[in-house]
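Attaching the record inline, Q. Sequence:
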Amino acid sequence: MVTNATITIFNRIPDKVSKKFVYVPHAIQRVWFRTKQKSSAGENGLKSADEYQIRIPYSECENWLPSDEFLKSETPSQNWTVQNGDLFIVGIWNGADQVSGINEIKKEFSGVAGEVLNHSENFFGSSKHIRIGGGS
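Structure, as predicted:
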């Protein structure tokens, strides 16, 4: 699989101390990334949004866990998963070890940032990968 980007995925986990959700970053070095502009006409005029497509090759899934195993893990910073509602950036995150949400990410990072809207693990055939569909 051809790769053209590095992403950081932010996995949503419950913080046992604050009783709120936090996001833990994990960098993935070689992924395929594509942006597509979507537009639609509505009652209040034209609306547009970015649609993101990400493919993570199986070779980059060494520390990946299914979401249920990830949520049970005692060391979420050493593993990663993909869940609807997770966040991502295109590039390497150099900020805190955990963030509270997309607004905190956008304050510290000026590039592409989005949310995982759908995903699937395609671990069969000759081009095994994780597929992520996201939006801004």
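The mean pLDDT is 93. The two ends are 25 Å apart (CA to CA).

More tomorrow.
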